[in-house]
Records
---
Amino acid sequence: MLDKLFATTVVGSITRPRFFRQQVDAYLERLAAGEDASDEHILTLMERSIPYVAALQEAAGVDVISDGEWRRKSYLGIVADMLSGFELHKAVVDDGGIHDGYVGYTITGKIEPTAEGLFAREAQLLMRHTTKPVRIALPTPYHVARVHWTEERSADAYPDRHQVAETLVPIIRREVELMVEAGVPFIQFDDTSIGRPFSEASESAEFTEELGYAIDTLNRVVDGIDGVHTSLHLCGKREVGPDRTPGYHALAPALSDLQIDMPMFEFKDIDAHDIEVVKGLPERMEIGCGVVTAKRHGVEAPEEVAGHVRKVLEVAAPERVVIHPDCGFSPGVYWNIDIDDVYGKLRSQVAAAQMLREEIGA
Ligand SMILES: [Zn+2]
């Protein structure tokens, strides 16, 4: 990812302080009630808060930083801010309960860009406030289609999820192109849906076909786009393995077909099965090691963090290893890991990286 060994980064979102969450919540209530809510107040607050969240990550020593996704109502809801055809409703986001978000959107109409370049503009705002390289996350077409399409409400506009994904591939691709033009060095795709449904179907031809489709749609988004580092945050995938054993079994070897520079794994409970998956990845891929827990309170010691990474180093060269948390700290506005703990966790992963560099004499 960088020339530096054991570079550290984040997975998009950073916890928002209470003052901020309350403002966004009130704003969403107004929107959900159908009131004509003005964006201006909340957008101003968001923009004034970006320098703070950049400073937090810089102070922790993180190498590649994000804007904490503070401008987003949720990691996924961002698409409704840039596309027509989505209807807001206050409900649990159907992403398998992984993020516990409860602001949902449903596709109810024709999807067309209404704010092209939104991700590039997010990036530019962050870049004005930092000299660090930045990463911007956006959901995959497949994930948006899986979460926001419902038989009852979306079928009039799009007969099935794949039609939605097909519509989104060129739209998301355009966002990627505009980010590259804006000089964004790192782009992260989020996909909680890839590899679902979980274990009970993972042996079936239908599962394999759907997984192949998810990978193909993402490959079409990035096909031929150069000059940017791409990663895929594989969220909640530890349940995918046979009998829901922790691991990424069901996704391998299909993962090797991904034209992405770095899959980002949850490796806080890394085991022998995960190691086999890592061994099977092509050398061209870096290995994102999510070894700091984003959803647990309390701060892990650097030694504990380094311990997880050492297991990866038994089978992969240090040049391929990148360290990050196992998920975003606050994928929706409601997640509530203490922001000082977030800082502590980021400090821990940076200290672990330094410890590992010293161990191998780098
Ligand atoms: Zn996640």
Note: The two ends are 16 Å apart (CA to CA).
---
Amino acid sequence: MNGKLKTFVGGVHPPDGKALSKDCAIEKFPAPEKVYIPLTQHIGAPCKPLVAKGDEVKMGQMIGEAGGFVSAPVHSSVSGKVVAMEKRPNIFGLKSDTVVIENDGQDTWCDGMNQHQDVSGLNADEIKNRIVNGGIVGMGGATFPTHVKVSPPPEKSIDTLILNGVECEPYLTADDRLMLEEPERIVKGAQLLMKAVGARRGIIGIEANKPEAFKTISEAVKGVEGWSVEMLRVKYPQGAEKQLIKALLDREVPSGGLPMDAGALVNNVGTAAAVFDAVVLNKPLIERVTTVTGEGVERPANWLVRVGTPIRLLLEEAGVRPEAKKIILGGPMMGLAEFDLDLPVIKGTSGVLVLTEAADGDYENCIRCGRCVEGCPAYLIPSELSIIVEAGEFDMAKERNILDCIECGVCAYVCPARRPIIHLIKLGKAELAKRRSKAG
Ligand code: SF4
Ligand code: SF4
């Protein structure tokens, strides 16, 4: 059946590892004694602090305000006392301002929060305001502020809202569980997103390896005007925005363009659930479902975790095996290897993966096998791009569309010479971004 389903050109089929955690129901992870909440958890400007050491805070209280339009506020995930404001390492290896809060164990919400409200009369702008105030960002790991996504310029019209339930990254099962356990929350959040953006139809894309989620979500959208569910072929990176648009709508996002240039908007199913919370419950984004899994842990799990919880606590609870070699935040294809277990769970932490095999650091020259070209879903020539960047020819890399790379990692995955293609491409993109910002 997989062969008849819609998909995109290119891609790969890595072992999916999802059996380890796919049957683990979502459980609440205990709130820690202290949370470490970075003021930068999203793509865009860092937040400006709204609290100082010694302040008492309530659960859901805004502790950092958005530093610009492309930014998202952050909120306290516990009630308690701010015991430090300090720079701490983040997942990118840099240091970011972090609010450290001692949990009083009372979970005292701000007045009026976490209460069901009738939102049927809200207009698009009112929904967007609640999305901004809730600090909602892309929950699939991209962490792009959602209110920016749902506010395209007036000349761009979005006819289709796509909800991404693909979760194509191997090992991760947080979205699968959420679709199985909270379908109403997802579908209602999706309807609010649709109203906010003014789209006339919505499609929820789910890969064929999640038949139960497909069934559950299909039930939940029955009778919901404008919405349908589509089963997609299992292939990585089926969940990347451009590939999802191609598969579902047969539309190409132009080189250098955004989904809105193809009349579409893509949001993750977890983001839709968070939008429901922010709009209907007046509950900001202070917790998320995170998969903790891999051959290196004894008890894989899908936990609902408070933002700011150190990953060390998750790993202690899951039990790290002696043969564990590598820890990745996110999935094995796009996630980042980490060594600092004191890093906290943030809004974009979809998974903590513990592997028993570390990658071999040595690599060889390109043997021109063409596998990276065949697999690249962005129609690039990754082998060539990596060599061009190695030679420092950044302008040429731009001409060869390096900026269209979606950093899916397929090229590095298939390369028999184990060339660090993705690292070189990221380096090239970062250098071009630096030049752009210098040029103003
Ligand atoms: S060049 Fe970029 S888009 Fe193409 S396979 Fe490599 S990481 Fe993916
Ligand atoms: S997969 Fe590796 S060896 Fe093959 S062409 Fe691409 S970079 Fe060269």
Note: The chain has a mean pLDDT of 93.
